[in-house]
Amino acid sequence: MSNRRPNFFYHLHPPTIPTREAGPFYTFGLGGISLLLFLVLGITGLIEMFVYVPTPDGAHESIRNITYLAPYGWLLRNMHFWAGQLMVGTVILHMARVVFSGGYKSRRLNWLIGVALLFFTLVLNFTGFVLRWDQDTAWALMVGTNLIKSIPGIGTALHDFLIGGENVGAPALLRFYTWHVLALVLVASVLITWHIFRVRRDGGISHAKSAPRVGREQLVRLEILAMLLTLAALFGVSLLVDAPLGPPADPTALITEPKAPWFFLWIQELLRVASPFLAGILVPIAILLVLGLLPYALDRSDEGIAVWFNQQGRIVQLVFLIILAGAIALTLRGAIR
Ligand code: HEM
User: Fold this and answer.
1) CA 18/CA 16 separation, integer angstroms
2) CATH code for 16-254?
3) Which of 4, 48, 238, 250 could form a disulfide linkage to 79, CB 3.0–4.6 angstroms apart?
């Protein structure tokens, strides 16, 4: 580094960083990996837009064109699909890291931005899933949007606004397409930029006050390594496993075993035992609210920053663990059905 001017990436970090936090076993690079996957999604999605046709007659066929006719289109589509699935995983792991290391302390606004990012990651994934326009996605869209109808008072109006009419059809696909490629991406990009700016503003990654420090070069090197490994893993899985594509959506066909996308299987399981309004609307909203409020209502102390499983944050850790374990258990139950 010595005489050279530090490049843009160095400025994402303060000039010096506490020794432990500059190593691989504090953040595990999970925030940075989530960011990388978001960028990969943006680039691969942009290229797919040149071929994808957002109409009920054209959607499924255009995805087959991407997969079978466009040069390396299959690889591009696989990378877009797998980056989306991986990102759900890395965002949840990143959140768990922040909870168990007390990283939310003194960084409570950024925690809230993070909860919003979790929501946008899931909704972006769902709207992308709908664009496949095969049997599964048509069913999931119908069930998902019907849940909205169960909201007292405004449900029907909100439902009709979201899908552009009373029934799922061409306007619904066009609307989900616009949400997916533009509106949600824009909001998520602004939130991610704000989130990372806040990390920098908060004095870098959370750390104990008097920790010894090293230059930021070590962390930047590790981040580049983490990015290369992530890209290699994404590339490997995309070469080996194809993104799913079922038969084209047919409103007259009966689906015997309809399944929600894996990240919403827990909601589908809840729907088996509770009313649509409770399982599909109230519980998800309550979970987001509880998550958002965790560092405000259950741990207001700034003791134990950057201390794994710190004493002061025990209740926050426990509540988070209960929510996570519940969601994983329901997802597994839904998956093996
Ligand atoms: C699109 C999704 C997300 C991206 C791209 C992202 C990115 C990042 C990055 C790059 C960092 C700094 C390095 C690191 O801690 O790994 C960070 C820190 C942080 N993130 Fe996220 N994040 C996302 C989602 C979330 C979520 C879901 C939460 C929690 C609800 C969250 C809460 C935080 C907090 C509180 C910090 C500061 C932690 C500390 O200083 O120890 N983020 N994020």
Assistant:
1) 7
2) 1.20.810.10
3) 238
Ligand 1 mean position to 95 CA, how many Å? Answer: 7
**Residue 170 predicted with pLDDT over 90:** yes
- What is the whole-number distance in angstroms between the Cα of residue 94 and the centre of ligand 1? 6
**Which residue's CA is the closest to the ligand 1 atom numbered 29?**
114
At 229-285, the pLDDT tens digits run 999 999 999 999 999 999 898 766 666 667 899 999 999 999 999 999 999 999 999
Question: Which residues make Cβ contacts (< 8 Å) with residue 261, sequence separation at least 6?
Answer: 125, 126, 129, 140
CB-CB contact of 64 with 245 (8 Å): yes
CB atoms within 10 A of CB 29: 22
Q: Is the CB of 27 under 6 A from ligand 1?
A: yes
How is the chain split into domains, by residue range? 16-254
* DSSP element (H, E) containing 180: none
Tell me how many degrees the CA angle 17-18-21 measures, rounded to the nearest 5.
Answer: 95
Q: In whole numbers, what is the pLDDT of the chain averaged over residues?
A: 93
Ligand 1 centroid – CA 89 distance (Å): 13
